[in-house]
Amino acid sequence: MHKAAALLAAASLALSACAGPAHAEEVFNAPAATRVAKEKPGLKTAVFAGGCFWGVEAVFSHTKGVTSAVSGYHGGTAQSAKYDIITSGVTDHAESVKVTYDPAVVRYDELLRIFFSVVADPTLKNRQGPDVGAHYRSAIVPMNAEQAAVAKAYLAQMGTSGVWNKPIVTRIEPYKAFYPAEAYHQDFMAKNPKHGYITRWDAPKVAALKVKFPTLYRAAFLRDAG
């Protein structure tokens, strides 16, 4: 991307998706899973959708055991997997993050607990934080049968936990294909720590991760992009 175009794209971010009227977000005490993931050795991947992907990526990039966190799109076609099309609201995509992790360090059920504690409010339909639209829905996208079983059990447990005073609307979605987002979206918080959206919405999520999950918090931001 030419320098002028890159600057224009960066400036437009503050006026388009991942930017909207501010209101408070909550941090939850999501329960420890009663159905613990039983995963074989070796790296695993999973996809999480929870509003603007900058914050989802940032939290998982600060989570021990995560070896990669890539922002992207899931649920729609390859042709529509472009930021300007996604944010128009006419696709089936959700802004998502593909997480690669080592289950010997952090299990899938622990990632779910982190996600619903400090990233996504599971009672909000087609929105998170200041961002509204089906492309900002919260969704879990398991990549194998064990993840699917754990996710189903955890959503059921969440619904009866008493932590949330509204119905759980997060859904499990079947994996279709994941399309990485444009380069300027990758590692966005690490590259733009003073961006208004980051300081208002995403830095507090990372701070909450540090407080609520100190043994799984990693101070350094795991970068995927240059």
Can you describe this structure in just a few lines?
With 226 residues, this protein is an alpha+beta fold. The protein is built from seven helices and eight strands, in the order αβαβαβαβββαββαα.
Structure class:
alpha+beta
CATH architectural category: 2-Layer Sandwich
Work out the helix count.
7
CATH topology description: Peptide Methionine Sulfoxide Reductase, Chain A
Relative helix content: 25-40%
Report the biggest beta sheet as strand number plus sense, adding barrel if it closes. Answer: 6 strands, mixed
The overall average pLDDT, rounded, is 91
Helix and strand sequence: HEHEHEHEEEHEEHH
Write out key terms for the chains shown.
Peptide Methionine Sulfoxide Reductase, Chain A; 226 residues; two-stranded antiparallel ribbon; globular; single chain
Could you please describe the fold and organization of this structure?
- The protein is of the alpha+beta class.
- The chain has a single domain (29-212), classed as Peptide Methionine Sulfoxide Reductase, Chain A.
- It has 7 helices and 8 strands.
- Strand 6 (138-141), helix 5 and strand 7 form a beta-alpha-beta unit.
Give the secondary structure arrangement, pairings included.
Layout: H1 3-13, E1 44-50, H2 53-61, E2 66-74, H3 83-86, E3 94-101, H4 108-119, E4 127-128, E5 131-132, E6 138-141, H5 145-160, E7 171-172, E8 178-180, H6 188-191, H7 196-212
Parallel strand pairs: 6-7
Antiparallel strand pairs: 1-3, 1-6, 2-3, 2-8, 4-5
